[in-house]
Structure formats: structure tokens, C-alpha cells
Amino acid sequence: MLQRYVLPLAAAALLVAATPPAGKTLDIYVVDTEGGKAALFVSPSGESLLIDAGSPGGRDTDRIMAAVTEAGLKQIDYLLLTHYHVDHVGGVLPLAEKIPIKHFVDHGPTVEEKEQVPGFQQAYAALYAKATHTVVKPGDKVPIAGLDWLIVTAGGKVLKTPLPGAGSPNPACAETKPRENPRDPENGQSTGSLITFGKFRALDLGDLLWNNELDLMCPNNPIGTIDLYMVSHHGLDQSGSPALVHALQPRVAIMQNGQRKGAAVLTMQTLHTTPRLQDVWQLHWGFGAGLEHNSPSAFIANVEDPAMVAALLTANPMMPNPTPTPAAGASAAPPPTASGARPAGHTGPANEIKVSVRDDGTFTVTNTRNGFSRSY
Fold first, then answer.
1. Where do the structural domains in the chain lie, given as residue ranges?
2. For residues 24 and 147, what is the distance between their CA atoms, to the nearest angstrom?
3. Measured CA angle at 331 (ends 326, 336), to 5 deg
4. 10 Å Cβ neighbour count for 78?
5. Which residue has the higher pLDDT, 221 or 316?
6. Lower CB density within 10 Å: C or N end of the chain?
7. Measured distance CA(354)–CA(224) in Å, rounded
8. Are strands 148-154 and 157-158 parallel, antiparallel or unpaired?
9. What is the pTM of this model?
10. What confidence tens digit (pLDDT) does each residue in 262-312 have?
11. Does the pLDDT at position 101 exceed 70?
12. Looking at domain 9-325+352-367, which CATH architecture does it have?
């Protein structure tokens, strides 16, 4: 059953104006999917929305379910799929076997002829036929009590009508040149969300590509500034342009990268030159960023392969990245795949990053690996 499920403006305004129970927070669980994506939002009303479901194989499903259990959920109210690549939708079907999913939200069918998850579109259609399915466009809202969840990109289209207080010329457009489109057009279809809770604003654009960011942010910035930026495309430099990031001026960025996927030098440089940005939190210590550009370890949820890190620290800077020799009796780390990510079967550390947001705009980010927290 395919249906539109978008609130009229008057009803949406009531949701925004709703006052959450005293002391209730918006909680965000950024799950470690080893360079994939899964972020669970739980509103003060107790409603939940999961953005993407990671890769197939069961590992990411188990990690999502751990966050679901931590949040005390019995169902997922909304599953929003940014796009149909394997590291974003591979875990959808096994997740649906473990917990009820009430609403499915996406940009419509894939634009790629060859599915990264064979047969997914057919299986997905059978799944959402038993629930509620919404195909969204920019300007639509997902009706979660206490939050204003606005769709700003979907299906290759972008929000151009400025939001209240936004719409000023974007000077960062002058320094950001268009690029040739990469070979995976589904990324450019990504469903992107602006999430507002009281005075707090967060932006998540999935794997939206560089040129799509220019479509959204140039010549004028329709969004304004934000507090939390969920770094696009795992920190790969195919996304995260200065025209986007410098204009948004987030206070905090969280990167859903893998050990060998994302955290590109250009991305890190763009983040660290962004006005107002205080900290970059990473799911993994990224080999792409090297020694110069990774965040301090307190801000990194997973720092694995100590032998490799040690080898990098002691290597001749004129030599290629070294491969450490395993200690006697130890097994070598699994080799990277062609995409640079570790094999999907890896079952190493799975620490998450958690964000707790208050409606006055203040929020606390916690690294569950070491218990380190910082409030903003």
C-alpha cells in the first residue's frame, strides 16, 4: 500500500509547538556499522526513527538492536532509507524479522539498473505493503511528536524555499567548483533531513553528492546554521563541500566512517576550517585522515588494529602505508575490500556515539568506548 503520509502545515505547526515532558531529551544513537550507516533517533515523546540499517550479514542488525534495547523500544516507528546502496539498506530485511517497523520512508525506486542488494526492491515492496509507505519530496515532514522533521533533499531534488531566518547569499559557493558526477547515481538521490527540537537543529543528508550540495546551498543558503552535522557520505571527499559545511557552521560534526572508509583529508580540512565548529567525533580512527587529520582519540569511538596504528606512528614518512607483521600466534587483520572498507563479517569493537539533546539547544555527546562526554 503506497500512500502519502505528510502532515498539513497547521498540524505540523502544532507538533513543533508541542512542549515535551520536563526533563525529556531527544536521544540519538549513532551505531557503528563499519563504514555503513544507521542512526537511531528517539524523540522525547518516545517515538523513534531509524535512518538506514547498515550492511547485510547480521552484524549491523545486532548492533542496531543493541541500541534499540538500550533505548527501551518495542518497535521502530519510522525507517527512513536515504538511498539503496548495500551499506545503507543491506540490514533492512533481517531487522524487520527482529522488530516491528511501522512506517517506511524513502525517495522512491532506485535509479540504478543493477541493485547492490540483489532483489531488494521486490523484497522491500513486499515488506512495506504490510505497513505504511511514504515517498517524500523536499518540503515534506515526517510527523514525530515534539520534533520538526523536514525533508530537504530527495530523489535528486532539493529544498529551495528559504526557511525562516535563512536565505542569505552563500559566499562559500565562490570557492566550491562543480565536479564530474561519480558512477553511483543513487547517492545523489539521497533523502536528507533537517531535524529541529526546540532550539537544536541537526542535518543528515545521507550520501548526497558534491554537486547536489551546490544545488541545495547555492547561490543562497536556504537552511541557515545548524548545531549538529551528521557528516555526509562517511566523510568521503565526494561530498562535504565547503559550500555546504562552511555555510551551515555546525558546532559539532559526527562522522559515520569506517577504519578504511571515509575520513578523507579534504573532508577533514573542510571541517576543521569551518566557522563555529568545536569538535569532530568519529566512529573510527580513519586511515584516510592519517596522523595529521584524525580527531584526538577521546573523540573516536573505535580505535582498532593497534599494530597497524603503531606501524603508522613509527613508519618512514617517505614510504607507503606499512602492513604490520602479526605477533606470534596472532592472526592478521582482514584485508580491505575493493572499496576500502573492511569485510562485512568483521565482528570487532562496536562502540557507538550517543547524543542527548535538550530543547534549550544544549546537547551532550558521549563516546561509549571510554565514557568521555562533552556538552555544547
1. 9-325+352-367
2. 12
3. 90
4. 22
5. 221
6. N
7. 25
8. antiparallel
9. 0.86
10. 999 999 999 999 999 999 999 999 999 988 999 999 999 998 656 665 665
11. yes
12. 4-Layer Sandwich (3.60)
